[in-house]
Every structure is written in structure tokens, then in C-alpha cells.
Amino acid sequence: MDQKTKTFVKPEDFLKIQIRKQQLQQRLKQKSKTTASNHQENDLSNNNVFDRKKRPNPFARDTEQNQKKSREDSLIQVDDTIFELIHNTTSKPTANLEAPILEVLNEYEKNIIGIVQENTKEEPPQIEILKFLPVDWSIKRCIRILSKTIVTPSTLKSSVEASGLTGFVRCLDIKNTSSGLDISSSARFHQNLMYWQSPHLPWLNLVQRNSSNNNPFKLNENEVDSLYKDWMNSFKNLFNLLRARQCPYFYVLANNYNILFRAAGIGGRAEMHALLTPTSKGFRQMLNDEEIEFTQPLKKSGKKSLTPNNSIEGTDENNEEEEVDEMAFLEELGINKTDIKFKENIKEKQRELEDDHGDVSTALIEGADCQTFFNFLLNAKSTLPKVGKLAGIPPTLLAPVAFLGGTLRRQNMKSIHTLTTLLSELKDNYNLTMSNYLNTIAFTKVSKELINDLDTSQTFADNVFGVENLSDCGIDMEVLKTMCSVKSEAINITERLQYCRKLGGFTHF
């Protein structure tokens, strides 16, 4: 027997043979799958010849129009003969079986219809254009100006800074006076960023006295006494400037209240006056004890605004009738009159407490009572706070003109009325966004209410004399005319304004 000789196979060669076998098996399986799928596709293609979609030709023209036509044609089915008839046939006019109703209108009815149509036409909203920025007596926290044109560079030249400082301290109109100072927009911009303040402590924010950034600290008795004496001298000097009409206005900012003193002629008032906000029942009682007469201008207007359709008179009458009926009912029950009066006093106190610490509680003090109120602030113990973060620090005085003991300060933005006139000279559009100090918004509300109550025909002459008497107060004449104006448009709360070059004025946005 022939014996077949067997050769020895190495492990590496054996593994290669096994890998080749597996690869061959996988190839055979893939070929079988592809042939089966091709057979199935051929069968489907033969069965659904009409269902196949034609491949779009990218080089063909008007492909979009052809697609639209194909879509419209596909909506109409061949077998649906009803829709084909509807699509192909044109609508024929049918005879109207009902007799037409003839409406005969006379000339009077036609005129009425024409008047109604004219009244129903919607008129386009009229844009209120303000030629000059209205006066807002509230203190601004910050102001943002968006303009394409740069008013002033980030760093000022020494001559520009000196001219702006000199113009503010001397109350000069750099542009219209031959003073030899720099009249560029940067110098005038720098001039309107300054104000006078007393007292001034660099590490404290004495304008927003309730700010969280103020850290509490204690002062010695000698320090408190020296600060208060210096403040009293500054307050007296500033009030004397107001009486002499050398200062148009100044602010007194305390922890619990804010005061705006204004000279005679401002806001159409014939005498100097003070606006105090907010007030409480206890503070008003102190004024009554000192025989200081005051009024609350927003008390009536605030009640009217709460009732729709100006029905305040009817509601007051109804309340009085209800109180009378309640009184009669209590008397019938045999309750003593003293108990009834005690109940009435409690109701009156509750009504007074509702208006405390709000805009409605703003008090107006005029004439000789303003002088008495000034003396009351100098001698009152409550003027100097003894508790809180700013204990021992007197109220803050802010003024646009120099006074004794005042510190010259500069902020990011001040005197916005003059700044807007400066920006309007650039002949470019810009937007103004302002943030008001909420506790001082009542000053503007009261000023507007007082102007609405004035008789403009009688106060026009007083307005002219007021401007002339305050001509040496150091304020720009255009701004001074707006402050002394008796028109309601001259005072408004300004938060967002836009200056349009084409319209030549300001608009709200």
C-alpha cells in the first residue's frame, strides 16, 4: 500500500488558511444576497412601472414650473370623471329666479352715510414732537445716550478741561460769550457734568442715602458737631441765595424724606416754595404744631385716578350717606355719642395712614411758611439722624450754583437739559434712556398738577417777570424759560426719548 506522506503545517500557515476560508464564505453569502435583491427589485419595477417617478434633470429649464404643473395634474385623477368635468367645464351664468329688491335712497340718507364713513375712517396716530426737553424735577440715577457721533473723547485735553471747569464755576455760556475759553463740544460737555454738594465724604454715597453700598461706621461727638455746624452754615447760605434769586433751586436729601426748594417764578409760582416727600402723619402733625400751613396737591388727583369715569363726587356722597345711616343706626341702638365720635376718629386716622409714605403724601409749603419751615429744619432734632448707617451725618445739599461750604463734584451725567441741546447741534439722531430716583418722582408729579391748576392767562405776565428776575442765577436761558413756563407740556417724567434730526425735536419711544 502506498502510504501518503503527510507534511507538517506550521501554526501560522494554518491560521492564514482558516482566515482565507472565512473570507471566501462571506463573499459567497454577499453575492447570493445581492442576486436575490436584484430579482426582487426587477419584479417590483415590472409591477409598478407607472408608479415610478422620473428622475429630475438638473440641467433642464423651468423645473419649478414643470413641478407645479405635474402637481396640479396629479391632483386630477383620470378615473374620477366628475372632477374632470368640473375642471374642464366653464361656469355658465344661471338665471336669477328671485326678483331683485331695489333700494331707493334719498339725498338725506346719502349724506348721513357719507358722514358716517368719514367718521369711521381711522386717522393715523399723531406723533408728539417736543422742540425742547421737558423739565423733570426727579433726580436721575444714570443716563444712557446712544448716538453715532462721539460727543467727547475718553481723555480730555488740559485746555478743554480747564475751560469747562471755568465756565461752570463762573456760570458762563462759553459758546455765546467772548471769554476766550475753548468753545468745543467736549468743553461744554465737561461743563455740564458738575454740581455742588455738601457734605461730601468720598467713601459714602450721600445722594442715595439708603444704598446698600454704604458701610456703617461711627463718628465721635466732636466730628458730628463740626459736620453739623458746617452743614448749618451751608444751608443758611443756600437759602439766602434762593431768596435773592441767585439760585433757582436746590435739593435736601435726608434718610426719611427729600425736599426741593424752588425760587419765586419757577413753575409759575409767585413766591418761593418747597416740596416735601414723602411725609407721615407724625411729621405732618409736627408741622401743624409749628403752625406751618401746607397743602397736598396730589391728594385730590390721586383719588380721582383711582375711580373710573371721574366718579369721585358720587363715591364721596355715597360714603357720606353710608356714614350718616350708620350713625343713626348706632344712636337707635342706644350707643353713647362719645363712643360714636371715638369710632369716627379711628376711621379718620386710618384714612390718613393710607396716604403715608407715598406720592400722595407730598406736601407743598409756600411763602412765609417756607421761611418758617426752614427755621424748623435748622432746629429740629430729627434733621440729624442718630440711628442707621449714616448716623451723625446731616442731610445732603445739592445745588447747580456755588454756595458756602459746597464741594465741587463731577458725575457721569448731570444737567441733562443742556446736554440735549448740545447733542442736537451735532445734527444726528440719538436715544436717551434715564433711570429715576423713585423717591423724587413726586416732585415732577406735583409740579405738573400745580401748573394744571393755574390760570395761564393771569400767570403769563408773572412768567415773564420770573425769567427776568432769575436771569442772573447761572442757568442757561432756554432751560430757565422751560422751568418758568406755565404750560403743562413743559413738565413731564422723562425716561425714554429719541431725538430725530428730520423732525427737529424729541419723541417718546
UniProtKB/TrEMBL annotation:
UniProt biased composition (Polar residues): 33-49, 304-313
Annotated source species: Chironomus riparius
Bias kind Basic and acidic residues: ranges: 61-73
Keyword Nucleus: yes
Compartment(s) where it occurs, according to its Swiss-Prot or TrEMBL record: Nucleus
Annotated keywords: Developmental protein, Nucleus
Signal peptide positions on this chain: none
UniProt keyword annotation of Nucleus present: yes
Region (Disordered): 25-73, 298-322
Protein name, per record: Uncharacterized protein
